[in-house]
Amino acid sequence: MRDRITEALKGHQGDYLEIRVEEAESTSIRYRGRELEEVGRSESLGGSVRALVNGAWGFASFNNVEQLGRYAALAVEQARLVGGGDERMAEAPAVDAVAPATLRRDPRQVSLEVKKALLDEYNRILWGRSAKVQTTVVRYHDAFRRQWFANSDGAYLVQEWSDLTGSFLAVARDGNDVQQAFMSVGSADDYGVMEGLHDQVADVADQAEALLRAKPVRGGTYTVVVDPALAGVFVHEAFGHLSEADHVHENPRLRELMVLGKRFGPPELNIYDGAALPGHRGSYLYDDEGVAAQITPLVQDGILVGRLHSRATAARMGEQPTGNARAISYRHRPLVRMTNTYLDAGPASPDEMFAGIKEGVYVIRSLGGQTSMEMFTFSAAKAFMIRDGQLAEQVRNVNLSGNLFETLLNIEAIGSDLTWRPEGGGCGKGGQSPLAVGIGGPHVRIRQVVVGGE
Amino acid sequence: MSDALHLLEPSFRSYLEQALDLAARRADQAEVYASESLVTPVIFEANRLKLIETKETRAVALRVVVDGRVGLASSSRLGQPATLVDDALAVAGLGAAVQYQLPGPQPLPALQLWHADAADWSSAAMVQAGQGMIDALRTENADLLCEAHLGKSQATTALLNSQGVTAAYRRTAVFGSLSANWIRGTDMLDVWEGDASPKLDLDFSALAERVLQRIRQAARTAPAPKGQLPVIFTPKAAADTLLGAVGSAFNGKMVLQGASPLAGRLGEQAFDRRLSLYDDPHAAAGVASCPVDDEGVATGRLPLIEAGQIRAFYYDLQTASLASAASTGHGQRGVGSLPAPGLTNLVFAPGDTSLEEMLAAVGKGLLVDQTMGAWAGNTLAGEFSGNVHLGYLVEGGEIVGRVKDTMVAGNVIQALNDLLAVGDQAVWVGGAVQAPYLAFASLGVASKA
């Protein structure tokens, strides 16, 4: 493969050229209702070429990897058609390396029979908890990718990634009222996260039934305490996306708002992102431009100190690449993406979290979130009212919203209990979803959060 | 249809025919589904052309049924057909029990899905159209930072099965989207619009003008109201925020599993009498039109709601067999998965109220154009709760100004039975949904104010 790729890189006139070839295999199993619904196996092979010519980009992706040279010429021709620009790549060492996946327990070594039997067991637990359970969906998916990468700077990389996810959905029904509860797990390197989930799976069924009894939350502005799993989603949505340099690098006004040294939160607030943290779903050795992974401080002592870069955004902003250029597959060009993002532990003990809250909401795990550059939202998987500092009745349909520039300043307390929960979801951006990311955080208390509702 | 496969490259065609032939010998039923596509977008960022792309894909899926169990294997490697057959058969040994029969050949509607003007649309012309939209925005407001994506797609779908089906069709689509970002202090405004069509008939000036109109209306900020209020959804907001939950509620699989709030309510007058909703796989302006679904069943227009009454749910073969129903021709899939019930072009019939009359009828309320995060709740039950990413205070029949820090929440299924008005024009949104303005009598509005 090395010869074919380097051969295709030769002879093209351009500022920069890179070629990726990727093969992947995946397995999926899905139960719906009481029965198995689908077992599938998939393999793929494809590649892409990205070319920078006179400061402008061309990109071609394809399945026919026999014709790398033709697609390289096509990418160059398209870049030329753009007619010039001021894009360039920041300097980065030309790495020559092989980075195999290091797996604690390789999902490919576990037979389909064993995986299916485990899912069947979990599905029966979901059905066994309550007569109100109307249907269930239990999913498992694993994928293994191997990528060959080379660029015109002389880098050559062979890298492997593994990822697996499991998810559990229970739907409970009472008359026309339908409620759902959901839980997921994921791992880059360990089939073991799928095992021993019996209690958590049972809780999903219990939650679906409990939601039938819960009242919808009343809309309004509340003090909110988020659990560690939701704190991870919070820091991803409420700050992480804004730290991706491709959102700010060509937006002068946003650059002013995101100037390094600006206060974003209280002195206890520290936020980091890094693929070099091992063992999470966003961990890797090199990004999709061949830049070595690192751990990037984004906020330290409440002050904005860094942001996430590709080689192109780093060049434009006069900063260093951070190894955050990622593509979900060979079909897409790399974008600036988060890897493992976490809000670091603070000084507050867990029992201080609720103290003094007259009326608030405690939110546990997330069903998803979204951000514009100004506002963010996320929805809670489970939520309780807080009254006079105590947990009170469960509520449902809790979706929260806030302003990115204000909400971090409204953090009142950061817990000492930093936790990485192996969530199975993923991040979406620019038509590329789901990208495996890691999220971590402790309990966090935030004032003045808008909660939707009637 | 005897040589529908002439649309495919000979080596690809030969791979598909060999795979089916080998599989049919070893399985009770076999089906090959293949797709080839070529998408070529031009991308503007920060007001300038940045990138031109070409994306080619080619992949195949093989479904086999052996002893009543189904197996699926898919590949874009396209090595030996026998490998794909071995994979599918191995999986079928552990696969789900099924009772359906794959369909045999049927007469298929003759649809005009391939348009030469779309296929011939050049990158240079796309660039010109994109630059024109950005110039129109920046001429009016030089502070705007714009992005635009314009492009075309050319796709071929082929389906062969052991019951004698050999079908293939190709279709074109052109698309254009435009977004503008305007920052004043820490106040940020993002407006986007996008259109798609099977042929090159998109009006890019009108698209740019829609963005400009939303920006002008947002020049002033208005105090956000709160409480139970009348709320108007624009066609774009209705398509993006609400119709996913509606589609899910009519999905035969959700109905069969009892996970739809409409389960067991066929024939019921569940919605406002002014509402009629169809899935129309033959709509000439729809980008999801197709003569046959992704498992060989001929397609046809399906009424879901007529005058507020629940008329039908939509099915694929597998769900239909479990529900003792017939497939409605809504088996949809990607290459990596088995078919499942899916919609094509969802068409909302217009009502009789103009936008002016609607604004007047609202009194004090909201007009919502873009929401954020509303998809992340209990959509099965039709519940939604989202940030009003772009919305306006309506008062005295006028759009007063933009509201911020506001959320809107409700239950779509219930809200569609409590309508103030249905707009008198249904417009295409993104090429696969046609919807009018919808005014809901009462939704929950929460705000920081």
Structural class of chain A comes to alpha+beta
* Beta-strand content estimate of chain A: 35-45%
Largest sheet properties of chain B: 7 strands, antiparallel
Strand content of chain B: 35-45%
Report Rg of chain A: 23 Å
The helix count of chain A comes to 9
Give a description of the structure.
The complex is a heterodimer of chains A (454) and B (449). Chain A is built from 9 helices and 25 strands. Chain A has 454 residues and is an alpha+beta fold. In chain A, helix 1 packs parallel to helix 2 and helix 3 (112-128) packs parallel to helix 4 (198-213). The mean pLDDT of chain A is 95. In chain B, helix 1 runs parallel beside helix 2 (81-92) and helix 4 (123-140) packs parallel to helix 5. Chain B is globular. In chain B, strand 16 and strand 17 form a beta hairpin. In chain B, 23% of the residues lie in helices and 37% in strands. By secondary structure, chain B is of the alpha+beta class. The mean pLDDT of chain B is 96. At the A-B interface, strand 1, strand 2, strand 3, helix 2 and helix 3 of A face strand 2, strand 3, helix 2, strand 4 and strand 7 of B.
